[in-house]
Design brief:
Elements lengths: L2 E9 L8 E14 L5 E6 L5 E8 L4 E8 L2 H10 L2 E10 L5 E7 L7 E6 L13 E4 L8 H6 L7 H12 L2
Antiparallel strand pairs: 1-5, 1-8, 1-9, 2-3, 2-6, 3-4, 4-5, 6-7, 7-8
């Protein structure tokens, strides 16, 4: 059984750009989600690569994750049936201490930029880059599944303000 252990951060500025190794456009559709954290997602990168992913909580910041490659036509059919979606440009970053990616969200989730680092263990040491403004690990409203259901631009101004201020002061 695969475990996903990751930490997530809001990003301020563009200091991350010097670390980019690759990028791709992602479209994610959420087919199922529940209050206990179970999600079923379809993801396509627009080049013919697509995945079906099931996630559910394990312990702490770890989640069980089952991910399978699927044919692009299947992904397209599932995306067409998913009412909740997230669009983002994903960048792979060349940074130490884990597998780093950064998502620049589009459409109703702009202007969010979130960095994630996937770790071997919950206790793994991580050097946090200076452009990571604040940690959002475990804040459910910032999960991609939650952002698909309730995009950032639909948050009330008083909900957005603390996060946007944090980005502005970094």
């Amino acid at each position: 059984m695969a475990l996903e252990i990751e930490r997530r951060f809001l990003v301020a500025g563009d200091g991350w750009r010097e670390h980019v190794r690759w990028s791709r456009n992602l479209q994610q559709g959420y087919l199922a989600g529940s209050a206990d954290g179970l999600t079923l997602r379809v993801r396509s990168d627009g080049t013919g690569a697509a995945w079906l992913t099931l996630k559910y909580p394990a312990r702490g910041i770890a989640r069980h994750e089952f991910e399978y490659s699927i044919p692009a036509p299947d992904a397209d059919a599932l995306l067409a049936r998913s009412e909740r979606r997230v669009l983002q440009q994903r960048y792979g970053l060349n940074l130490p201490d884990g597998d780093w990616v950064l998502d620049v969200f589009a459409a109703e989730n702009a202007p969010l930029v979130i960095a994630e680092v996937e770790l071997e263990s919950e206790q793994a040491a991580v050097a946090i880059p200076p452009w990571c403004s604040c940690e959002i690990t475990g804040i459910g409203a910032f999960s991609n599944a939650a952002l698909a259901q309730r995009p950032f631009q639909l948050w009330q101004p008083e909900e957005q303000r603390p996060w946007l201020l944090n980005l502005a002061t970094k």
